[in-house]
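subagent[fold] <- orchestrator: predict structure for attached chain, return tokens only, no commentary.
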Amino acid sequence: MSCSWFPGGCLVAAMLAGPASLMADEQIVDEIEPLFLEAEESKRIADGWVEDVVVTGDRSIRLTGERDQVQQAIGAVMLADQRFADNDVELARSIARVYSVKHADPQALASLINRTGPDVQADPTLQVVVLSGRVEQVESAMAVLAELDVAREVSAQSEEEPVQRDVVFDVYLVGAYSGPHEFPALPAVPQSAVEGFRETFPFASYSLLEAFTIRASPGGSDASVRGYLDSDQLTEYRFQAEVESSHEESGSISLSDVWLVLRTYSKETGTQESEIRTNLTIQESKTVVVGKAGIRGVADGVFLVLRARFD
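subagent[fold] -> orchestrator:
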């Protein structure tokens, strides 16, 4: 048994259940200590004082002092003891559980579960989510985790969507002349184009001014080439095309802003410019004559011949 004197009264904490009870008693003593006022030693044994014992569960506290002080202290002891009892019950109802994550992201799961009540900690390295709190909160959160932690199925539509391949252009610039000329034979692709428009444009001879290949990706990607023609007069050309969309099943390729610009420079005529510009849809591997431009000093006409394929 121990006795503690405070200003205005004496508290005796009788330890009935070992050190654990003593610790609880000391907590309650801390609660009621401010209720006692300073007093001289002689007042501690003065007339009118009373003594009372408060029993709180398995422990007791003896109070000695003026009647009003003792009554007030008794009320404070009972309130404090009830609060500690409630905390003990709450702790007894608290548990901790570990959920092993199988499919989802632990951090993402933790951010969702955090809103349901229990304390949550996620460990991406161990792939676990640790829950602690009241039994009903933790059990409810565990059920939610199991519901959320499932393998995500890829939709059939996504699996069936083909990856769009690049489109490769073979571009030919064919010069046409009214008079006969001795030129090397045209390659097969531009020659087939000439055979197609010869009746419409009855020129006497044709030559290959330039040929190049360029690649572009579907979806608005722009591809361009710039260079100079091999001709007597300095002539710059620029070609660009944009693949708006492509459909391999049907073999169609939609092009936007297909543009050929020819520009010549000379002291006599200055700068001359001619262009072909259009939007069109072509079939894979089919040769297409996009248009004809006239540029003085190079040829009587320049045909833009195009062929595209998937790669």
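orchestrator: received. Logging for downstream: Helices lie at 19-32, 67-92, 106-113, 135-148, 156-160, 188-197. The chain is about 25% helix and 45% strand.
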